[in-house]
Design brief:
binds nicotinamide-adenine-dinucleotide; alpha/beta; 2 domains; Rossmann fold; 32% helix
Amino acid sequence: MKEVRVGLIGTGGMGKAHATAFKNVPLVFGNEPARPVLEIVADLDEEALKVWASDFGFARYTTDWREIIHDPNVDIVDITTPNHLHAEMAIAAAEAGKHIYCEKPLALTSADAAKIVEAVEKAGVISIVGFNYFKNPAQAFARQLIEEGELGEITLFRGTFDQDFLADPNVPFSWRLDRQLAGTGTLGDLGSHTLGLAHFLVGEITEVCGMMSTVVKERAVPVGGSGYAAKAEGDAPMREVENEDITECLVRFANGAVGAIGTSRVGTGRKLGLGYEIQGTKGSLFYTQERMNELKLYRHTDPDREKGYKTVYIGPDHPGYKAFFGLAGIGLGYNDQKIIEAHDLVTAVALNQPAYPDVRFAYGVNKVMDAIDLSVQEKRWVNVSEFNTAVD
Ligand SMILES: NC(=O)c1ccc[n+]([C@@H]2O[C@H](COP(=O)([O-])OP(=O)(O)OC[C@H]3O[C@@H](n4cnc5c(N)ncnc54)[C@H](O)[C@@H]3O)[C@@H](O)[C@H]2O)c1
């Protein structure tokens, strides 16, 4: 049986999701064309790492991520560290000839993302970036409908990603609020997923005009815990929040469609408010991740007395679902998207074929993020091509 060996960097929220996904790939999809093996894992706190590695069944662990890069028993370097580390780790991995699984956003800036694209394409390694939401079979189906012309010409995309995990001003400071470690705030963290979906479903965004707002301007300095797990004590000093809580943006697509993208990390009531409405000349789609097993489809060609959105329940006729269940409507969850993503990468590596979405796709998302950021700073429309580099 062919094996694909994984070296994971980072054991936080996403490290857990990736390790869980790889463990489940053979259980859901079987051992063909290859079986992933959890070979080695890296993080900073050795005591915690030792327990974590054993719980997940990694053969080895290290507190030096570079050991993973140069480990001859590693085929895939899996990067789930905070954003500022992605570029250095991904470039080192590519130069060592390793395939790459990297979390989004690919890099802090499109210039850094371009360097990753260059290194990956020069080395000829396979890459995938964690835009897991379009691994939901509902999105593959949405794309099929659009490609088959079921919606006619796409005229409008309105997308969101709102969550309220930072709505409480008592939630402490963490790396997501540090411009040096995260880049933009909710735009890179949540909005990058919506931009990814917009590109996947409608096509390239060419022009943007954005605005941003920071609602909670300072937060308590934590004493420990990374990311969502940061903990602060009652008398902790305060630290200024360095990036935005809300981004709203008008967008224009290369194919003539227009739209808007909005994202908030202080959006009270929204738990996983990733969604969109896509309108076309012959029909429309409506989706929200909070009901991820349903896609609302409207056909303007229906007889007048039957016109209205209908609910399509995701099932075995939608790409990726059948491996989980043979019947529609039973439903997938967040981690199942990650299992599909990990399986796509393992399959691509085993068969030596491209995976999707790769670092070049993610570079495109980084360019739109940079354009939105510049548009906010300079209070003007920005053409995304202002961020073109040698890899375009
Ligand atoms: N695709 C998604 O749905 C999704 C969801 C959440 C986060 N993310 C992305 O995943 C990445 C990680 O986010 P998270 O929420 O898991 O963060 P986290 O803070 O929970 O985990 C990050 C981990 O990286 C470790 N780390 C930091 N520096 C390291 C180093 N030099 N070497 C080894 N380990 C190191 C930390 O100790 C921590 O365990 C981010 O890029 C984020 O944008 C993606």
